[in-house]
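Task: sequence design from structure.
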């Protein structure tokens, strides 16, 4: 099984003809992703040859959906144009928009998040500033390396891109149903809670790994959700135990004020909800192994 993405997903790439879009479209195709088109108004009507696979370019998301039946868009659009690109995807009512772009203004992210909500949340947004999501052996929408794991029984949701990759590699022998990188910006679409809810409902996911990081209260809210709604075992890791207070660390959302948003506070909230929390990614992987081993 999978959450949000599977072998039947038909994927388009907004910004496919740019350097980054071209590179990752080629990699996604190599992972077996069913990429049915790209979107670039200036290159509509052309196509791009990816090692023998011809991918057509459309002028709009709506046209791409009409011609191909696409239901997922991956966005590699520069920050200044990302808001317009996401709004276009929302207007076309594509079910899933995966916003990879880093450096989008928080005001723009808040605007397209609110716009999606006002339109009835017909478009699920993942990101921005995220690695996307992968269902190993079926489909890869984003920049997660497709060769570091295999299909299995763990569900992974993570704020951090690189920690997503590390955890997938650490547990590569067990494998994953899906791994979702939700991004670390202050305003994101899909949250830990959304992914936890989907993994709880997925019959093939036996254990959930949740990776958070300092800043905000997303992990504390996720802990409350787990306590009330999740019956499957959850293992957690919170990045940033050594971060100094009052400094923005890495991601724009990772700022700590007093005890609010600290790794320790998040760890305590998760443990109070019955989540086993590792102090390092490797320790977290060991906790997951121990639970699955019974």
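Answer:
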């Amino acid at each position: 099984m999978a959450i949000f993405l599977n072998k039947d997903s038909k994927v388009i790439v907004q910004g496919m003809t740019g350097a980054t879009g071209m590179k990752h479209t080629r990699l996604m195709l190599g992972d077996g992703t069913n990429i049915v088109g790209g979107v670039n108004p200036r290159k509509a009507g052309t196509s791009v040859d990816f090692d023998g696979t011809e991918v057509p370019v459309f002028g709009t998301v709506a046209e791409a959906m009409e011609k191909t039946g696409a239901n997922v868009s991956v966005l590699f659009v520069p920050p200044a144009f990302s808001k317009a690109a996401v709004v276009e995807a929302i207007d076309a009512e594509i079910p899933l928009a995966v916003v990879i772009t880093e450096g989008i203004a928080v005001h723009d992210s808040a605007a397209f998040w609110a716009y999606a909500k006002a339109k009835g949340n017909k478009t699920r947004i993942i990101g921005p500033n995220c690695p996307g999501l992968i269902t190993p052996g079926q489909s890869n929408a984003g920049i997660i390396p497709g060769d570091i794991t295999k299909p299995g029984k763990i569900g992974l949701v993570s704020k951090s891109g690189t920690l997503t990759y590390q955890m997938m590699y650490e547990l590569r022998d067990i494998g994953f149903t899906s791994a979702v990188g939700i991004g670390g910006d202050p305003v994101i679409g899909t949250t830990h809670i959304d992914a936890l809810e989907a993994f709880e409902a997925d019959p093939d996911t036996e254990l959930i790994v949740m990776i958070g990081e300092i800043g905000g209260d997303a992990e504390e809210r996720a802990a409350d959700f787990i306590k009330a709604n999740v019956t499957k075992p959850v293992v957690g890791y919170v990045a940033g135990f050594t971060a100094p207070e009052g400094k923005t660390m890495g991601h724009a959302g990772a700022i700590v004020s007093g005890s609010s948003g600290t790794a320790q506070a998040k760890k305590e909230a998760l443990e109070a909800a019955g989540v086993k929390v590792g102090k390092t990614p490797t320790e977290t992987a060991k906790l997951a192994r121990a639970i699955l081993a019974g």
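The mean pLDDT is 94.
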